[in-house]
Amino acid sequence: MTMLHPTLHAVTERIRQKSRDLRAAYLQQIAKIGARARGTDRMGCANVAHAVAGLPANDKLRILAEHGPNIGIVTAYNDLLSAHAPLRTYPEVIKDEARKLGATAQVAGGVPAMCDGVTQGTAGMDLSLFSRDVIAMGTAIALTHDMFDAALMLGVCDKIVPGLLIGALHFGHLPTVFVPAGPMSSGLSNSAKAKVRERAAQGLVGREGLLDAEMKAYHDQGTCTFYGTANSNQMLLEAMGLHVPGTAFIQPRDDLRERLTREAVRTVLGKTPAPGNYRVPPIGQLVDERCIVNAVVALLATGGSTNHLIHWVAVARAAGILIDWNDFSQLSDVVPLLTRVYPNGTADVNAFQAAGGPGFVIHELLEAGLMHADVLTVRPGGLAEYTQIPAVTQSGAGLHWVPAWPSKNLEVARPVDSPFSATGGLRLLTGNLGRGVIKVSSVPDDRKVIEAPARVFDSQAALQDAFTAGELECDVVCVVRWQGPQANGMPELHKLTPLLSVLQDKGFKVALVTDGRMSGASGKVPAAIHVSPEAAAGGPLAKVRDGDLIRLDAVAGTLAVLVPQGEWTQRETASMPAAQCAANGRGLGRELFASMRRNAATAEQGACTWF
């Protein structure tokens, strides 16, 4: 067996030690709950009657007389989201397969699923991050019916998977498998789409031309094909052993898709071929500190979404595990970048899958001692099963798995001994402006250190107006503040990417510094994001003034305003404009989220609203 990399061992041990008491309490709690009798045997007769009243007679018989296992389905289906539209048919497929195995399945509940692609740049994005915790609560409400022996989570996109996972971990006594839907087929390339957006930002392409390009890029059911938060979710679930192996990037219209959904039912019931009687571990036991570290390593090795520096902190906390950005940074120093998938390259996730996909990456990391091989997974073969790709057997009657290595395209996926970069795609930034992070995997080497005068904006719209007015044709560090969880819910500032890219392409030294988020598809412009403490909580960004010299150094890992210490200490901390503060909480349902804004933890604490 390959020796574990010493840094991986050290980070895992540090996490284990600082989480010891919280994790022990969590495990004790789920063990106590898991030791109870089955719901139908434990609950009152009226409770049970309500739970099965709507079922066919044969299903009632299985649950009540035969004591067959009952699977709770939590679904994020809606047909507004292209990635979630395929989930419409999944419950009936799951129920059919469960019946074949002497079990039953019920849709325990649905959770909301909003699309950041629809809400980018609108007031709806103010609810995006908090929707994760709403989804977690919806998952809890669904599973609180407490009639289930296992659970299947149906969801794919940005906040949906973290929310489902946080909710499921609060029911950590249940074996749980996640069931995705896969990416849409490739349309207009992500690079070509980005060029059209940049031309539109310059007024060179009108609305009709821009809409035509966007429609050609987003054209069918499935996730968007770039490697943003949604597809990063799927990579991380594979690395955590929570999927049927190799399920992540099989397209919705592929014949494999339904077969893999049926395999998820067999998996959660422990009905896969295995020596002896394999019992799928409860998700709360499976997701331990090793599992979390494996997820972080997979994120770094693939240049995944910066949103997961928030989401996976929250996921870990739900399992009684404490991680922070120091852990991400230390792992990033030793984890090589193995893939080039847009925005870190020109290939999309379909090309990544064709090159070997998650299975190839996991194989390489295991071989290098950069993943814990001895973790529990939902499959009896452990993480080794996740180094393979599913295929239909030659007879067409079933599934089998084939090795995902070696890479089929070295321009997209490379082995550990010849990576695209010796280190991961994320860096921690610290200095007198606070703590932030930067995604460096797609930033050109000559742009990783930017020193330029600040231009301070109180909103994304204000920066857009300045760009349109031609005020940013210079070397500039754009500071966009009042964008943190407590200020307005921490929306993504994705609309800024084309504008800043235009300025950078003109030769100007440009950077973004913000207490907000960028999209999971943030790319070539250096951006210090998630800066904490946020301005609304009195953080240093509230002191920055136009003209202050700011240095963002992604090589040294520093973020500083170059103002004399005495002057900086004495400088007054600004307050969010009263009108802006009021506007952040009004309209389009934002009033309902006031308590979340008040109680949100810092970005580095996962922006959680529930502890």
Automatic annotation (TrEMBL):
Its cofactor is [4Fe-4S] cluster. The keyword Iron-sulfur applies. Catalyzes the dehydration of 6-phospho-D-gluconate to 2-dehydro-3-deoxy-6-phospho-D-gluconate. PROSITE patterns: ILVD_EDD_1, ILVD_EDD_2. Keywords: 4Fe-4S, Carbohydrate metabolism, Gluconate utilization, Iron, Iron-sulfur, Lyase, Metal-binding. GO terms for cellular component: cytosol. Residues 411-607 form the Dihydroxy-acid/6-phosphogluconate dehydratase C-terminal domain. InterPro entries: 6-phosphgluc_deHydtase, Dihydro-acid_dehy_C, DiOHA_6PGluconate_deHydtase_CS, ILV_EDD_C, ILV_EDD_N, IlvD/EDD_N. This is Phosphogluconate dehydratase. Residues 69-385 form the Dihydroxy-acid/6-phosphogluconate dehydratase N-terminal domain. It is an enzyme of class 4 (lyase). It catalyses: 6-phospho-D-gluconate = 2-dehydro-3-deoxy-6-phospho-D-gluconate + H2O. Pfam families: ILV_EDD_C (PF24877), ILVD_EDD_N (PF00920). Its EC number is 4.2.1.12. [4Fe-4S] cluster binds at C157, C224. Belongs to the IlvD/Edd family. Pathway: Carbohydrate metabolism; Entner-Doudoroff pathway. It comes from Extensimonas vulgaris. Binds 1 [4Fe-4S] cluster. GO terms for molecular function: 4 iron, 4 sulfur cluster binding; metal ion binding; phosphogluconate dehydratase activity. GO terms for biological process: D-gluconate metabolic process; Entner-Doudoroff pathway through 6-phosphogluconate.
